[in-house]
């Protein structure tokens, strides 16, 4: 595969999945569910169907398990995980060898928006709870909303936010053009989570 035929939209390596983040991923994927403490790799590609080839390459090259192989209109997304960071890195290396690219060839992430809403109104909480896939949003909590492009990088933001603060993971979607993330907690915990999530995305953009 030549690099001119292929775009690596996102390359996201997570060193250690946090408990709520891992639980959320495990509850929403169609494949092998990961657990807390595992290393994880998310790769978003275009054309979308290249996700099939790259999943095949990675699984044959390393002792990793797949949680997601998702093909949507524009992009393909795949996820791999293992308790061994070196095995996940070996899977990534096999993908780089297949594509002729490196981590530096990925699209740099940008933050489209971040919002912090304090003392969430009960009616707005109920609206969000209708669509959430994780914890329930409780009225009076502070809500973090974050939007990132490319979408897969939102997984890094969510995991790093949980490393920094005692928060509840409400909603994470890393499919499509934008990734979106909602988390809830006290105002101080959400501010800490927001700062960590933003720093992780900015560090990836600068690398």
How would you sum up this structure, described in words?
It contains 6 helices and 8 strands; from the N terminus they run βαβαββαβαβαββα. It folds into 2 domains: 103 residues, 2-Layer Sandwich (Alpha-Beta Plaits); 97 residues, Alpha-Beta Plaits (2-Layer Sandwich). The two termini are 25 Å apart. By secondary structure, it is α+β, with helices and mostly antiparallel strands.
Q: What can be said about the biggest beta sheet?
A: 4 strands, antiparallel
Shape: globular
What is the end-to-end distance? Answer: 25 Å
Strand neighbour order, sheet with most strands: 1-2-4-3
Count of DSSP H/I helices? 6
% residues in beta strands: 25-35%
The chain-level structural class is alpha+beta
CATH architecture of the largest domain: 2-Layer Sandwich
Give the number of domains: 2
Low-confidence stretches: none
- In sequence order, what are the helices and strands, one letter per element? EHEHEEHEHEHEEH
CATH topology of the largest domain, by name, is Alpha-Beta Plaits
What is the alpha-carbon Rg in Å? Answer: 17 Å
List the helices and strands and how they pair.
Layout: E1 7-14, H1 19-28, E2 39-46, H2 50-61, E3 65-71, E4 76-82, H3 85-99, E5 110-117, H4 122-131, E6 142-149, H5 153-164, E7 168-173, E8 179-185, H6 187-206
Antiparallel strand pairs: 1-2, 2-4, 3-4, 5-6, 6-8, 7-8
Helix pairs in contact: 1-5, 2-3, 5-6
């Amino acid at each position: 595969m030549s690099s001119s035929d292929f775009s690596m939209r996102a390359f996201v390596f997570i060193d250690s999945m946090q408990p709520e983040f891992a639980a959320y991923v495990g509850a929403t994927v169609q494949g092998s569910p990961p657990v807390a403490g595992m290393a994880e790799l998310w790769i978003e590609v275009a054309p979308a169907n290249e996700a099939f080839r790259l999943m095949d390459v990675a699984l044959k090259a390393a002792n990793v398990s797949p949680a997601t192989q998702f093909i949507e209109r524009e992009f393909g997304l795949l996820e791999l995980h293992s308790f061994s960071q070196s095995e996940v890195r070996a899977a990534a290396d096999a993908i780089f060898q297949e594509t002729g690219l490196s981590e530096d060839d990925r699209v740099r992430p940008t933050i489209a928006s971040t919002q912090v809403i304090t003392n969430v109104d009960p009616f707005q909480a109920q609206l969000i709870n209708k669509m959430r896939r994780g914890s329930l949003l409780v009225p009076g909590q502070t809500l973090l909303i974050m939007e990132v492009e490319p979408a897969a990088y939102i997984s890094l933001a969510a995991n790093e936010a949980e490393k920094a603060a005692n928060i509840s993971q409400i909603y994470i979607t890393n499919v499509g053009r934008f990734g979106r993330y909602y988390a809830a907690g006290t105002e101080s915990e959400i501010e800490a989570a927001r700062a960590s999530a933003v720093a992780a995305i900015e560090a990836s953009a600068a690398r």
